[in-house]
Amino acid sequence: MRLSRYFLPVLKEDPKEAQIVSHRLMLRAGMIKQQAAGIYSWLPLGYKVLKRIERIVHEEQGRAGHIPLLMPTLQPADLWRESGRYDDYGEEMLRVRDRHKRDLLYGPTNEEMITDIFRSHVNSYKDLPLTLYHVQWKFRDEIRPRFGVMRGREFLMKDGYNFDLTRDAALHAYNRHLVSYLRTYERMGLQAIPMRADGGPIGGDYTHEFLVLADTGESEVFYDSQITDLTFGDRQIDYDSVEQCQAVLEEFTSRYARTDETHDEAVFAQVPEERRRTARGIEVGQIFYFGTKYSEAMGATVVGPDGARVPVEMGSHGIGVSRLLGAIIEASHDDRGIIWPEGVTPFHVGIVNLKQGDNSTDSACDAIYAELQARGMDPLYDDRDDRAGAKFATMDLIGLPWRITVGPRGLAANKVELTSRRTGETEEMSPKDAIARLEQIYAPVLGLTVQDK
Ligand code: P5A
């Protein structure tokens, strides 16, 4: 993309309404615009990151064998009357009435609807196990929407639902989700720690939240510091293996880590004092096992191996896709702006032309831009006629992890600068070498095969 043709409405001043850094930077970088309390338009740059995050979520769900579908945002109230949650959900549920006076609601979650789909089409245990998921907008009429996309009223969630014959099989689905979530967050450059939590309005008493530690987080958390040493890394997991998934769950949940809802001082006191931590965290996901809560209420049964019908065992699993943008920025920024991890950056590299209109720099930038695209990368070329300082400030604010700077003096010696946003380190090299370096860096992210040259 050429910046002269893009829509990037950056703000010079700090917006007053933003209390935390991620909200401030998302507004300043022209990523979102508030339309009503907790309701946002996603401007091109924000939309791009949202799509990158969504794509990682889809890839990791696919790897775990989960199947995508798409349910609507509006749901008939009658489904929720069946489960009893229409009355229970309270004021957080946005209720709507259509012209035929039928009650609808803007879905805050989809347990009822997916259970309805299941009972309409699945009859036998032979069709199990099954995990269906979608990435869809939700609405919760939060009392206090705040911190931008962090606590919105309309927000994007990945929500998945597992259907199994037995409790053990459903617990394997739970473990499988835990593993796939660990991978998903790490690909976004985040450490999200599973912590024992409370079922809330979804239900069930076996549930973990995934928390990214941050001072601005809304949840108070208590944990054994050893837990922060764990990483999933690039281990290969067979998602069908009960033992492998169970082993990962045990590794990541055997140390004390709880939200304030389930915190127990007596148990916490058994952790050696020097390892006890109290902190704040951002909840970026939650997994639930709730057994037959919805299937019994809604008559979702299957014929079991002995011919008798049994209610299906279920759980549900959510990732806060739009909240993740805020969480990533909270975890990765500096005074000058955002620092995107390579896995989610809106553009892979920024190209800054120090002398727009100069034949040599213009044609060098055009060539670099074309070559990066030819190799599967997505560059943002600042081709505006602006001061170098202003161009650098914009690139720093929007947080592209790499920048190529092209100026007439360097170019005379066939050199450009490659700068890391994270470390600020700059190296001089030929355009060809800069492109090759970026290709190496992005190969794992893009699934590229780098040819030896
Ligand atoms: C699990 C999937 C559920 O709704 N039903 C389907 C279960 N879980 S949850 O924990 O309530 O939500 C899942 C994740 O969605 C994000 N989230 C939000 N993001 C932005 N604004 C909000 N108001 C909001 N509410 C929930 C969180 O990341 C949460 O973990």
From TrEMBL:
SUPFAM superfamilies per record: Class II aaRS ABD-related, Class II aaRS and biotin synthetases
Catalytic activity field: tRNA(Pro) + L-proline + ATP = L-prolyl-tRNA(Pro) + AMP + diphosphate
Family affiliation: Belongs to the class-II aminoacyl-tRNA synthetase family. ProS type 2 subfamily.
Function: Catalyzes the attachment of proline to tRNA(Pro) in a two-step reaction: proline is first activated by ATP to form Pro-AMP and then transferred to the acceptor end of tRNA(Pro).
Enzyme Commission numbers on file: 6.1.1.15
Subunit description: Homodimer.
Domain Aminoacyl-transfer RNA synthetases class-II family profile as annotated: residue spans: 48-341
Keyword Transmembrane recorded: no
NCBIfam families assigned to the protein according to its UniProt record, in alphabetical order: PRK12325.1
One Pfam short name: tRNA-synt_2b
Record's keyword annotation contains Ligase: yes
Location relative to the cell: Cytoplasm
The protein's name in its UniProt record: Proline--tRNA ligase
Lineage, uppermost ranks: Bacteria, Pseudomonadati, Pseudomonadota, Alphaproteobacteria, Rhodobacterales
GO biological process, one term: prolyl-tRNA aminoacylation
GO CC terms of this entry: cytosol
Enzyme class: ligase
MF GO annotations: ATP binding; proline-tRNA ligase activity
PANTHER family per record: MITOCHONDRIAL RIBOSOME PROTEIN L39/PROLYL-TRNA LIGASE FAMILY MEMBER (PTHR42753), PROLINE--TRNA LIGASE (PTHR42753:SF2)
Keywords, ordered alphabetically: Aminoacyl-tRNA synthetase, ATP-binding, Cytoplasm, Ligase, Nucleotide-binding, Protein biosynthesis
InterPro entries linked to this entry: aa-tRNA-synt_IIb, aa-tRNA-synth_II, aa-tRNA-synth_II/BPL/LPL, Anticodon-bd, Anticodon-bd_dom_sf, Pro-tRNA-ligase_IIa, Pro-tRNA_synthetase, Prolyl-tRNA_ligase_IIa_type2
